[in-house]
Amino acid sequence: MGLTPASERRRAWTIQEPIGVVAAISAFNHPLNLVVHQVGPAIAAGCPVIVKPASTTPLSCLALVAMTLEAGLPEGWVQSFLPEETELAERLATDPRIAFLSFIGSGRVGWYLRSKLPAGTRCALEHGGAAPVIIDASADLDRLIEPIVKGGYYHAGQVCVSVQRIFVHQTLREAFIERLAARAAALKVGDPTKPETEVGPLITPREAVRVETWISEAVAAGARLVGGGRHSETTLNPSILIDPPGDAKVSTLEVFGPVTCVYGFTEIERAISEANALPVAFQSSIFTRDLETALHTAELLDASAVMVNDHTAFRTDWMPFAGRHESGYGVGGIPYTVKEMTAEKMIVFSS
User: Fold this and answer.
1) Percent of the chain with pLDDT over 90
2) 45 phi, psi to nearest 5 deg
3) 274-279 own/partner pairs: CB under 8 Å, 24+ apart
4) Buried (b) or exposed (e) across 191-220, using 16+ Cβ within 10 A?
5) Is 34 helix (H, G, I), strand (E, B) or coil?
6) CA 179 from chain center: how many Å?
7) Which of 137, 205, 256, 289 is deepest in the core (most CB within 10 A)?
8) Closest CA to 132 of 239, 249, 251
9) Which CATH architecture fits 131-308?
10) Is the pLDDT of residue 351 over 90?
11) Where are the domains of the chain?
12) Which of 185, 179, 188, 335 has the alpha carbon at shortest distance from 262?
């Protein structure tokens, strides 16, 4: 501290304090993992937490809350909240006694709740995107089909960083489409309780209808459909849309279904520009065997994380996980969320 006469004879240090009560609103697509990413950091930071799981997938959250009590946390330190009406969830999130709102879900709801927060309430928002993949002319098709298929179709595409927009160099375009179509057609679609199933249902029949409608609109506007079709009331077969219009829903909004879109390019700068053209930005990827191209593209892509020679949905629990622009606010990932849920205090000691 003694850098100036006014600060002499002093010592200072900082401590981290719990920010206060946390309200955690979670999503359906990873009903246990996402709740763990909210509840675990709150416990580690010393914050009581009230967690509202998605109304369609509450059971794993209830089990986790019961386990925290069994593990020895005080009664009420971790609570679950299952309101019948969304109005009650809004009242929880915007209650002035809440110090921190952790929200995982749609951008429309998340940004609305942030606008209603009382002065001083901090928050973290995790929304979706329309993750871009760029396949450079030097890329090895033998090594990229499997990760792209996994990134595009696991969880039936219900992942906020799922592979959605694939920009392929024209020299590889037709060969890539042929291989992607063959691999997607071979995916096992059906009952998610069976271990061999690779593509299961969407969360509700209404979502299956929505995704099907978006596909039909893109085809009507000029896209070529490969694969697709109905498997059941809630389950769609994997679809590939070739050259959907730039203003189609599948090109501009998060599909959240088993759909990937393929576009050709000749100049990588153009592919980067199109990849960056949306108001949403989360994770992205570049497939290439050229180091200069990898570094150049990774630095220019508008994303919080860029995967090189891997799919956009790669994630580990200790990585930072954050949407940019309309895709989110704050930084997720367990250690980063712990920090978000604490407040730093400086103590200055005069001697």
Assistant:
1) 98
2) -80, -10
3) 274/132, 274/165, 274/167, 274/246, 275/132, 275/134, 275/165, 275/167, 275/301, 275/302, 276/300, 276/301, 276/302, 277/246, 278/129, 278/130, 278/252, 279/325, 279/326
4) eeeeeeebbbbbbeeebbebbbebbeebbe
5) helix
6) 27
7) 256
8) 251
9) 3-Layer(aba) Sandwich (3.40)
10) no
11) 5-127+327-350, 131-308
12) 179
List C-alpha distances in Å: 233 to 158, 205, 208, 287: 17, 6, 7, 36
Any idea how long the chain is? 351
Measure the CA–CA gap between 343 and 298, rounded to whole angstroms. Answer: 33
Here the tokens at position 23 are 């309200």
Confidence label for 134 from pLDDT (cuts 50, 70 and 90): very high
CB 52 within 8 A of CB 83: yes
User: What are the CA-CA distances from residue 186 to residues 196, 197, 207 (Å)?
Assistant: 12, 11, 23
Alpha-carbon distance values, 15 to 22, 48, 122, 344 (Å): 20, 19, 19, 6
Treating both helix axes as pointing N-terminal to C-terminal, what angle do 59-70 and 33-45 enclose, rounded to 10 degrees? Answer: 30
Give the pLDDT score at 36: 97
E strand map for 19-115? 22-25, 49-52, 78-80, 100-104
Q: Which CATH superfamily is domain 5-127+327-350 in?
A: Aldehyde Dehydrogenase; Chain A, domain 1 (3.40.605.10)
- Separation of alpha carbons 230 and 20, rounded Å: 48
Q: What is the pLDDT of residue 222?
A: 98
| Exposed/middle/buried for residue 351 (C-beta within 10 Å: 0-12, 13-18, 19+) | exposed
CB neighbours (10 Å) of residue 329? 19
Mean pLDDT of 41-56: 97
**pTM exceeds 0.85:** yes
Strand partners, 124: 102
Indicate which residues carry an active-site annotation: 126, 160
